[in-house]
Amino acid sequence: MNERRVTLADLAREAGVHVTTVSLALRNHPRLPEKTRLRLQKLAQERGYAPDPWLRALVAYRGQVVPRRNPPTLAYVTNWNTRWGWKEVTAHPDFFAGALAKAQELGYNLEHFWLREPGLTHGRLNRILYARGINGVIIASHMREIDVELQFDWKHLSGVKIDYFPHKPELHNVTNNQCDVIRLAMQRLIAAGYRRIGFVMHRGWDHSVDHLWTAGFLCEQQNLTQKERVPAHIFPGPVPVERWFKESKADVITDPGPFERWYEKHRPEVIISKASFVLPEFKRMGLRIPRDVAFVDVFLEEFGGQIAGVRQNHATVGALAVEILAGQLQHNKFGVPEIPTTTFVEGTWFNGASCPMPFRKRRPV
Q1: What is the mean pLDDT of residues 146-151?
Q2: Which of 30, 90, 119, 255 is the 20 to 30 Å CA partner of 300?
């Protein structure tokens, strides 16, 4: 026979408080003194209280079908060199689109704030958010050469980061699983019979994901013999980090010499990269795809079957950031988390004519 479920009313009677007080305490609401919250949370734990999942589902459903008169606002904070410069970069427009769609679905407004607005310091933005009652913040689209800690009053804020920058404070984070994106590509290629697999990546792009691109490539490369392994071509060369961005602002190969020498020396059967990095060089060198070299795009944006590669599902990253933030706000979880977590979004593989499967060994010309 099932035991009777402990209810909020039971806890309220035992504690000598109103049921609303217990509800606020279990949602960690700052309206109650911390001593009261901890006392009631301890009581709930001792009595084995667990929330009713069906009731929660009903509340969530009502929240979706009954429009709010004054929907709460979430802040989408960027730190690009221009207000909308991030909209012209791979992935970032999709991050915002996914976040906006999910915010609207959950009944929130999503408002963009640009940290380089003239006269807008961290402290001033913090005061603006507090005055407007905005306590949910998504940190997104920060220039990778800017890694300055955000000086916000986090005890009033709940935050989620998209991608890795800035590294401080250490908030919960949602990002594409770049390590597994390239591992997926490598696994597909090795299974199809490719052995001499080249990898070309911009040094700044690898830096911006804490070097997970090269980590994934080197991980899967261990499944090849030493003779088969082709070293990654990382451009621009080994220069100080502050020059990565000045020397190649468009994230293209501006010095073709090292790439051409790398290709001639190692003669890869297939190259994994981003289309804008290598396709201009293929054209300049007279290389035909896939006759001379196969190509896999790990930033795949065209799905007509011409190019093989991995779609990174950027919109899902933005949507999950909002979902996680909404959950934190529902439970009044403010401040920098003691143990931050990272949620990875996996990529999706697409076959394409640029990379025949299985590998067909080329006949000598």
Answers
A1: 87
A2: 255
- Tens-digit pLDDT profile for residues 191-230: 999 999 999 999 989 988 999 999 999 999 999 999 999 9
Q: What is the mean pLDDT of residues 108-125?
A: 96
CATH: 3.40.50.2000, 3.40.50.80, 3.20.20.70, 3.40.50.2300. Which one for 73-176+316-345? 3.40.50.2300
Tell me, what amino acid is at 43?
L
Paired tokens of 308: 């093989």
Mean pLDDT along residues 52-75: 65
At the topology level, CATH places domain 8-51 in 434 Repressor (Amino-terminal Domain) (1.10.260)
Using a 10 angstrom Cβ sphere, with 0-12 exposed, 13-18 middle and 19 or more buried, the burial of residue 264 is exposed
Distance CA(92)–CA(314), nearest Å, equals 8
- Which tokens belong to 84? 């909308």
pLDDT higher than 50, residue 261: yes
The pTM assigned to this predicted structure is: 0.81
- Residue 180 burial (CB count, 10 A): 18
Q: Which of 177, 163, 168 is nearest to 321 (CA)?
A: 163
pLDDT given for residue 185 in this prediction: 98
Judged by DSSP in three states, 270 sits in: strand
pLDDT at position 248:
44
Distance CA 7, CA 53 (A): 13
To the nearest whole number, what is the mean pLDDT of the chain?
A: 89
For the chain, the domains span 8-51, 73-176+316-345, 178-312
CA distance 18 to 35: 16
Kindly tell me the sign of the dihedral angle through the C-alpha atoms of 241, 243, 246, 249.
Answer: negative
Contact 172, 337 (CB under 8 A): yes
Cα–Cα distance list, 210 to 110, 139, 310 (Å)? 28, 17, 20
Instruction: Return the H-helix or E-strand segment holding 243.
Output: helix 241-247
Phi, psi of 344 (to 5 degrees): -100, 135
Please check whether residue 26 is in contact with residue 38, taking contact to mean a CB–CB distance below 8 angstroms: no
Structure tokens at 178: 């770049």
For the segment(s) 178-312, the CATH number from 3.40.50.2300, 3.40.109.10, 3.30.70.380, 3.30.70.120 is 3.40.50.2300
